[in-house]
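Model the whole thing, not chain by chain.
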Amino acid sequence: MEQKIGVYGLGAMGFGIAQSLLKNGYKVFGYDVNVKQVERLCAEGGKAAANVLELNAVCIVVLNAQQTEQVLFGQNGVVPTMASGAVVVSCATVDPSFAKKMEKKCAEYNVLYLDAPISGGAVKAARGALSVIASGTDDAFIAAAPVLDAIATTVFKLGDTAGAGSAMKAVNQLLAGVHLAAMAEALTFGMTQGISPEKFVDVITQCAGTSWMLEDRAPHIVLGDYTPHSSVDIWPKDLGIVLEIAKSVNFSAPLTTVALQQFFKASSAGLGREDDAAIAKIYALDAGITLPGVS
Amino acid sequence: MEQKIGVYGLGAMGFGIAQSLLKNGYKVFGYDVNVKQVERLCAEGGKAAANVLELNAVCIVVLNAQQTEQVLFGQNGVVPTMASGAVVVSCATVDPSFAKKMEKKCAEYNVLYLDAPISGGAVKAARGALSVIASGTDDAFIAAAPVLDAIATTVFKLGDTAGAGSAMKAVNQLLAGVHLAAMAEALTFGMTQGISPEKFVDVITQCAGTSWMLEDRAPHIVLGDYTPHSSVDIWPKDLGIVLEIAKSVNFSAPLTTVALQQFFKASSAGLGREDDAAIAKIYALDAGITLPGVS
């Protein structure tokens, strides 16, 4: 039986996912508030999702929980129109309690739910090489298998109910956000001591102070290239979710709190749409130093 | 001409360095406030440094700047007794301005000075596999070459004057200390969401949230093994140096400041001599959760 798969949210990540699904021979139906993105998908062999019934799977690749709920259960929500036993693959970074709520609501329509936040960026999305940090019932994993095979090279199975995937994604974002701000703090601190960003990258990537984020983002600062692969504005959102969860269990997360403040400053300074390495511009401003390629 | 090399400070790192020098065939003269360590060195073929004149090189592997200055220029200080053209290889983590001061004072005795903080831990020290983050004159590097060849597999040359090596070491310690505390924050945060430390390590080490420190230290928490490879008390000292330097140039380092507070808490709680992964115990205490193997 031919699989009909919907992709809701055709931004950088969602569009790449839709392309990967098309490459794997599926019928792909796309939706985005921006009609131009739907037209772009149609030009590549996809179709518009409007009024399509009986989808077997939908990937939800929107910004946050609110948009996810709107797409699933709002006006023209997709879940009530889906085939019985179909699966929602929910990719946005959300609070685990929200994921559990959606799983339960989907079950009322006999629709499965996979809590499936993604990691890897737009380039990997288009290559079908994402990592998916997933949790859900065995049935949800089985129903989602065609989608997961098409979009990901690594699928972490975190548990048999929604929530665990989102929890691990939050843990990852806590670390990635703190490491990004720490890289900016260390790089600019080094500049005050006469260490160039280039020398910083050369040496630190070979030392105990290195991190995945440092190795990925510090070269952007060396090149003065702030083309947004992943933008500053991701972090107030994602670290905000971390602190919401932390608050719900009275967990004190002081480093996350401080890192979030730095991203707020960057966003307020008008850097929200720049690459997230631009967090270094906040430190440079505070310290009165000039980063490469920044006037 | 036979090289006579002194090693001042025979703790875990210094003793390993002395062993590496012995393996390379040098005459090694050791000093430590703890006489037992000197006796241990003698049992392995070394000698006591007391009253030995005309050393060609000395490695200073003590705790801090104060001890370094004491050994070099205090009562029975070694520098005035060294051969002309001999070299001091100074390995403690210190403020760059202190390193510059020592270089200048050594020059008064016609003794060279290599600003040479080390990284890698006791096991690598004994295997001659350290990393050295060094700066100094060409003459200092040439004079120190036999020592560096014996103790290190990687030597970073940061510049032609003392200070640059210590500055880069401070940058590295800033990152390593923040990453260590961030690992503890994320691991315990995950536990509040039902993620076991083991699952945390399995997944995060393959994701964007990973760091060198996380990969090295988080397994200690999984095993509940706090045998001190590198102890908690290193961090109040090293992050304190970072903030001293930062203060001298009015640099705001908010993540470093918060990480330091967490290490102060750990030290105050009596964890100073435990492995530095014990920083997680502070987070666990705050959150009311129980780490593996901790009662």
